[in-house]
């Protein structure tokens, strides 16, 4: 949220007050309200984006209030690169990166368009007894980051770029707020970098793929299509032109895991926890889900919810773009 007073070109308001007019940023439940843009914009001619204000509660399922080991590993790298500086966690969501970074003593600006997600972040930290003393929580728009030029040392936008119709604009904003020598840190899975055990997941995959297809075939009959933005955006090609340097680091994993339909795919899909479901009306969604669950119980048996997927956790590739 920028003030309406006259400011030098490209000068944004810093927390918590505008240096020029004295305007104080509103604060609700320890969240600085830095934008008055809507939570979700999926129509019109301007930039479009998906926020998780009402679908984010199911985003992480039973992992909502936990810190996973791979998130802690990522956080350690971020904290190390940030040092005594400031880390901007853009699209921080439920705090899967912010909270472990906070546990390591990093100074963080955690920004998200959804106050609901920022509230989950607060509850996660509270439940696992991690202080947010060095964390500034902000409702902010990634397309217009409300920070001054060259004000943060590191930044991440983990799981954010595919939710926005103009990801180039977001990266441009990240570049603007990074200090010289600052780093934009990205985490990617590395499919195929570990040897998969010979697990038979055919039934699990059949159910997931069929359920997803049936759902969207029904929605298409109602004139509703899944919302997808920038899924084919090539981040490297854009960032290589913008940033001075790129380095990578591979973190080996290879940990075996198992997850059931009930705790994995269905837990999130049933509660509209996937971003492509954002435009599906809740009443229609609930009706279709109820019918599909009855259909799948008849086909696969009433205990199909317990069918599991067994796999090997993929390695993590960190890509670090330096300004």
Number of helix segments? 8
Helix content: 25-40%
CATH level 1 class label of the largest domain:
Alpha Beta
For the record, the count of structural domains works out to 2
Strand order of the largest sheet: 1-2-5-4-3-6-7-11-8
Number of strands: 11
Sheet having the most strands: 9 strands, mixed
CATH superfamily of the largest domain: Vaccinia Virus protein VP39
Amino- and carboxy-terminal Cα gap: 25 Å
What is the CATH architecture descriptor of the largest domain? 3-Layer(aba) Sandwich
Short synopsis of the structure:
By secondary structure, the protein is α/β, with parallel strands linked by helices. It is 30% helix and 20% strand.
Description:
By secondary structure, this protein is of the alpha/beta class. The chain has 2 domains: 204 residues, Vaccinia Virus protein VP39 (Rossmann fold, 3-Layer(aba) Sandwich); 71 residues. 30% of the residues lie in helices and 20% in strands. Helix 4 packs parallel to helix 6 and helix 5 runs antiparallel to helix 8. The radius of gyration is 21 Å and the shape is globular. It starts with 26 loop residues before the first strand and ends with a strand.
């Amino acid at each position: 949220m920028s003030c309406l007073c006259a400011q030098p070109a490209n000068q944004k308001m810093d927390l918590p007050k505008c240096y020029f007019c004295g305007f104080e940023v509103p604060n609700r439940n320890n969240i600085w309200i830095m934008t008055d843009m809507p939570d979700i914009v999926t129509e019109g001619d301007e930039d479009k984006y998906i926020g998780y204000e009402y679908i984010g509660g199911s985003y992480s399922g039973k992992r909502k209030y936990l810190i996973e080991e791979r998130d802690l590993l990522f956080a350690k790298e971020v904290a190390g690169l940030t040092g005594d500086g400031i880390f901007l966690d853009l699209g921080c969501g439920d705090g899967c990166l912010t909270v472990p970074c906070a546990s390591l003593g990093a100074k963080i600006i955690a920004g998200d368009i959804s106050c609901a997600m920022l509230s989950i972040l607060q509850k996660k930290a509270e439940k696992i007894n991690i202080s947010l003393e060095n964390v500034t929580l902000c409702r902010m728009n990634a397309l217009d980051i409300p920070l001054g030029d060259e004000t943060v040392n590191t930044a991440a936008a983990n799981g954010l770029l595919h939710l926005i119709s103009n990801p180039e604009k977001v990266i441009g904003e990240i570049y603007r707020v990074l200090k010289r020598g600052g780093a934009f840190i990205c985490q990617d899975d590395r499919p195929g970098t570990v040897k998969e055990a010979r697990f038979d997941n055919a039934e699990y995959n059949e159910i997931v793929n069929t359920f997803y297809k049936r759902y969207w075939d029904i929605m298409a009959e109602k004139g509703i299509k899944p919302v997808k933005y920038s899924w084919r955006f090539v981040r490297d090609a854009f960032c290589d032109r913008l940033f001075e340097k790129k380095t990578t680091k591979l973190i080996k994993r290879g940990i075996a895991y198992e997850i059931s339909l009930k705790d994995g795919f269905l837990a999130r899909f049933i509660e509209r926890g996937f971003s492509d479901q954002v435009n599906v009306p809740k009443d229609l969604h609930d009706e279709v889900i109820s019918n599909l669950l009855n259909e799948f119980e008849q086909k696969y048996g009433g205990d199909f919810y317990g069918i599991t997927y067994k796999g090997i956790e993929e390695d993590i590739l960190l890509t670090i773009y330096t300004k």
